[in-house]
Specification:
Layout lengths: L1 H13 L17 H14 L2 E4 L33 H4 L13 H10 L4 E7 L25 H12 L2 E7 L14 H16 L6 E5 L11 H11 L4 E2 L4
Helix pairs in contact: 4-5, 6-7
């Protein structure tokens, strides 16, 4: 599906604007047999854990969608109790999960028969659960002050658990998100993805929650995929990038 999606995107761009160059994305040249081999573990795994967690957990509100964040160019009709942005955006100041034990979480998942785990690195609210050099709105400025994603990745690797990282391209906190030609934000978020895929060892799955807005021409997906597969050649990516 990924290869078909990339080809379709390139063809759609060729019909109007400049065609996207996907020559540096190795998966575009995969044979059916090569793709089947790359996808085999996923198809066999079937059962895994998806972890939604962050400062908003302190409020008991739904993750990210409970942030007021009314935007005329984005989804605003989700029915959920909302928290004012000024309150929501400061929850991190109280986030101090001192009992977090990544190894225990992985052990519980394995005991239930799970074969992979996906943890949120950044949701729509823009808060990064890892030590990012590209923002100060991350786990390092909380009272906890330790990299959640590093601990989680290390625990998965130690236990032989397949590691998945969730990343929301939509971002209601970042000042440049969908502003103008979106080039500043597009480069920034790709920088964050590069951090995630470059400093936590082997990553098996990159799980995106897709972009906002309606103009797909504001995103350099070819550069995104080229970078991701350069860093993680065996990576599996969902279809919401």
């Amino acid at each position: 599906f990924l290869v078909m999606a990339l080809v379709g995107f390139a063809l759609s761009r060729a019909g109007g604007a400049e065609a996207v160059d996907l020559s540096k994305v190795p998966q575009i040249k995969e044979t059916t047999q090569q793709r089947d081999a790359r996808m085999k573990w996923w198809r066999d795994a079937k059962f895994g854990m998806f972890l939604h967690w962050g400062p908003v957990s302190l409020s008991g509100g739904e993750l990210s969608w409970s942030r007021d964040a009314h935007r005329p160019w984005d989804i605003s009709g989700v029915q959920t109790p909302r928290t004012e942005d000024a309150i929501y955006d400061n929850l991190y100041k109280k986030f101090n999960p001192v009992k977090f034990n990544a190894g225990e979480w992985v052990k519980i998942a394995q005991g239930a028969g799970m074969k992979y785990m996906v943890i949120i690195c950044k949701h729509h609210d823009g808060f990064s659960m890892y030590d990012s050099k590209l923002t100060e709105y991350d786990i390092m400025v909380t009272p906890y002050g330790k990299d959640i994603i590093k601990q989680f990745a290390d625990a998965c690797h130690k236990a032989g658990m397949k590691l998945g990282l969730y990343y929301s391209t939509r971002d209601w906190y970042h000042a440049d998100y969908l502003v103008g030609d979106n080039s500043k934000y597009d480069a920034w978020y790709r920088g964050q993805v590069e951090e995630l895929l470059g400093k936590y060892g082997k990553v098996d799955v990159m799980w995106f929650d897709h972009v906002g807005g309606r103009d797909w021409g504001k995103w350099k997906f070819d550069e995104l995929f080229s970078m991701m597969y350069r860093l993680q050649p065996g990576l599996i990516v969902n279809n919401r990038a």
